[in-house]
């Protein structure tokens, strides 16, 4: 009987949730800002292109068996020397790698590093902020001083330092294979303080409220109070920071790869493609750098604009 009542009530709850979303300020603001809609469309298009890259590209640029050295430095819209039926839309690089294919596969790596680094920094910073804000005392003072010191350092330099330390601890033969994970950890460890400080401030406000006091009185464990009661009420600013941080993480990954300490040329991200193409700018092969740079610009700019819009919508003081 309970199951039947649940089944009957579920469509009603779904309709109610959809009606609430349809009438929300979030959707209204989104539909009345053309620039935000354009940014969302560009970001969605690039994410879908990266996810379905194997279905949308003529070759896998990560597979040396599919590359033709005879087709190196083909200009945009040029034909393959090995197969006249193949036209390279955006040209090829020094290894005969199709730039269009490389951009989609490189965007996949850039997005993977960006999302993973933001998620890692969010989980670490939120956990530290919750504990510091709720516990107070010397643990709060120590953790926040560490965060303050880290915030005085540029994120790129800190990520470079962390990347160098972790890579130095790995055997030389495993550094290229572990480059993706090391990048994620390096960027994540350089970004956690902003989440920690935001969550810590919100937690200090929430812990004084009656529902937290009641939870203490009935004897709930500290972990349950933090993650079941306080955490849902401090997640709004965290999500905004995470959205904006995604664009910064993508740029950080591209910067590290451009500096030669990120992804290897055999698995290029957008930053690696730009670095590789820079060597041929003066010899006339401008497309090797230009098109990946445009892709990186569109991706970072669209995500950043969405983050700014989300911050304004979720913060009534900014309206």
UniProtKB/TrEMBL annotation:
Entry's Gene Ontology cellular component terms: plasma membrane
Keywords in alphabetical order: Cell membrane, Membrane, Transmembrane, Transmembrane helix, Transport
Family named by the database record: Belongs to the binding-protein-dependent transport system permease family.
Compartments (UniProt record): Cell membrane
UniProt organism field: Sediminicurvatus halobius
Pfam families tied to this protein: BPD_transp_1, OppC_N
Topology class, membrane: Multi-pass membrane protein
Record-annotated ABC transmembrane type-1 domain positions: 107-307
Protein name listed in UniProt: ABC transporter permease
Principal place of residence: membrane
Segments passing through the bilayer: 35-56, 109-132, 152-171, 238-261, 286-310
GO biological process: transmembrane transport
């Amino acid at each position: 009987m309970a199951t039947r009542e649940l089944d009957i009530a579920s469509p009603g709850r779904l309709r109610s949730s959809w009606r609430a979303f349809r009438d929300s300020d979030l959707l209204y603001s989104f539909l009345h800002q053309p620039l935000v809609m354009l940014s969302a469309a560009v970001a969605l298009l690039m994410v879908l292109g990266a996810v379905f890259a194997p279905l949308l590209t003529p070759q896998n640029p990560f597979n040396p068996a599919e590359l033709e050295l005879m087709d190196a430095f083909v200009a945009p819209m040029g034909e393959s020397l090995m197969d006249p039926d193949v036209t390279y839309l955006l040209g090829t690089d020094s290894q005969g790698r199709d730039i269009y294919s490389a951009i989609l596969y490189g965007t996949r790596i850039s997005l993977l590093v960006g999302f993973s680094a933001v998620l890692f920094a969010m989980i670490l910073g939120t956990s530290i902020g919750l504990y510091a804000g709720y516990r107070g005392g010397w643990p709060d003072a120590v953790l926040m001083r560490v965060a303050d010191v880290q915030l005085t350092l540029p994120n790129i330099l800190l990520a470079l330092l962390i990347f160098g330390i972790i890579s130095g601890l790995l055997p030389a033969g495993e550094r290229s294979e572990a480059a993706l994970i090391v990048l994620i950890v390096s960027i994540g460890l350089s970004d956690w303080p902003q989440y920690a400080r935001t969550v810590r401030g919100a937690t200090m406000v929430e812990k004084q409220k009656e529902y937290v006091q009641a939870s203490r009185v009935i004897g709930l464990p500290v972990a349950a109070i933090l993650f079941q009661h306080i955490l849902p009420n401090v997640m709004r600013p965290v999500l905004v920071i995470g959205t904006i941080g995604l664009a910064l993480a993508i740029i950080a990954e591209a910067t590290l790869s451009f500096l030669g300490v990120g992804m290897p040329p055999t698995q290029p991200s957008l930053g690696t493609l730009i670095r590789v193409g820079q060597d041929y700018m003066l010899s006339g092969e401008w497309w090797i750098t230009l098109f990946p740079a445009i892709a990186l610009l569109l991706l970072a700019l669209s995500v950043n604009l969405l983050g700014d819009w989300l911050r304004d919508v979720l913060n009534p003081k900014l309206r």
